[in-house]
């Protein structure tokens, strides 16, 4: 494991948030949004070191003190060491945003214990361990904080695609409720469930645009929408144990396939 870090800062500096999967895509956008709001950012990455360094540098220009940390969430020991490494660098941590997610296709015909176990570890197990570690750290400081877990609107609008991924997100959504009960009042736990937000190699630009419009509001979520909701969840001291759906109402509709397979 390696850390790409800015100089360490004092414990009474601005609050620190770990954003998992922050090197690229939505995680990067969340990091920039929170850095703009005055948070110091711990950028987690698995393999995208150059992207993580750039995200940390861009965040550091907004609020000084960003740093990046690698960890493989398939390996429990690496999850356990992540928060202590961040505390060593920053002197404190106040919140975690779990944006990292493994997204591998399977369905009932290709389902296996192996893939389900892998995705449960990385998509649900790692966020639970990070919440537990954050709770312990905050109790030692006599402080309070929050965890925001990125979920998926498809939990409220299921289809047969990405079966193991869906199970892992369903487990995390249930864990949100349990952790909100078990870790209160020190730690709030909130879910944010986007709809179709960013395109991928599975979708052409035209197809993404057409699918993005398939919602009661005529548009699904944008990165700006999701980032604003994460910021709101971190700042609102009365929200815990619930999920905010940010999808233009897509969860109200019935889709026979996952967006990427349509």
Structure description:
- With 262 residues, the protein is α/β, with parallel strands linked by helices.
- It has one domain: Rossmann fold (3-Layer(aba) Sandwich), CATH 3.40.50.
- It contains 7 helices and 8 strands; from the N terminus they run ββαβαβαβαβαβααβ.
- The protein has an 8-stranded mixed β-sheet with strand order 1-4-3-2-5-6-7-8, with helices on both faces.
- Strand 2, helix 1 and strand 3 form a beta-alpha-beta unit.
- Helix 3 runs parallel beside helix 4 and helix 4 runs parallel beside helix 5.
- The protein is globular.
- The N and C termini lie far apart (39 Å).
- About 2% of the residues have low confidence.
Q: How are the strands of the largest sheet arranged?
A: 1-4-3-2-5-6-7-8
* Class per helix and strand makeup: alpha/beta
| Beta-strand content bin | 15-25%
For the record, the count of structural domains works out to 1
Question: What are the defining features of this structure?
Answer:
Rossmann fold; 262 residues; 42% helix
Brief digest:
This protein has helices spanning 25-36, 49-62, 76-90, 113-141, 163-182, 205-212, 223-235, and strands at residues 3-5, 16-20, 40-45, 67-70, 95-98, 145-150, 187-194, 242-246. The protein is of the alpha/beta class.
């Amino acid at each position: 494991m390696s850390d790409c870090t800015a100089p360490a800062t004092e414990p009474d500096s601005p609050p620190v948030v770990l954003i998992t999967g922050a090197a690229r895509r939505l995680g990067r956008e969340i990091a920039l949004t929170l850095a703009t709001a005055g948070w110091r950012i711990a950028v987690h990455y698995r393999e995208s070191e150059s992207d993580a360094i750039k995200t940390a540098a861009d965040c550091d220009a907004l609020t000084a003190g960003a740093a990046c940390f690698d960890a493989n969430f398939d390996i429990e020991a690496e999850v356990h060491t992540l928060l202590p490494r961040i505390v060593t660098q920053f002197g404190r941590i106040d919140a975690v945003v779990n944006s990292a997610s493994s997204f591998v296709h399977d369905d009932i015909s290709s389902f296996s214990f192996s893939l389900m176990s892998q995705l449960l570890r990385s998509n649900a197990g790692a966020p639970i361990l990070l919440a537990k570690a954050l709770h312990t750290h905050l109790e030692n400081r006599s402080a309070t904080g929050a965890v925001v877990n990125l979920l998926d609107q498809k939990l409220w609008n299921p289809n047969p695609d990405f079966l193991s991924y869906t199970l892992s997100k369903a487990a995390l959504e249930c864990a949100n409720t349990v952790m909100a009960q078990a870790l209160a009042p020190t730690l709030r736990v909130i879910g944010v469930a986007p709809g179709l937000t960013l395109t991928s190699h599975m979708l052409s630009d035209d197809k993404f645009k057409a699918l993005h419009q398939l919602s009661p509001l005529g548009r699904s979520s944008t990165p700006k929408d999701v980032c604003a909701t994460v910021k709101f969840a971190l700042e609102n001291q009365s929200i815990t144990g619930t999920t905010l759906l940010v999808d233009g109402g897509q969860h109200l509709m019935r889709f026979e396939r996952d967006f990427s397979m349509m």
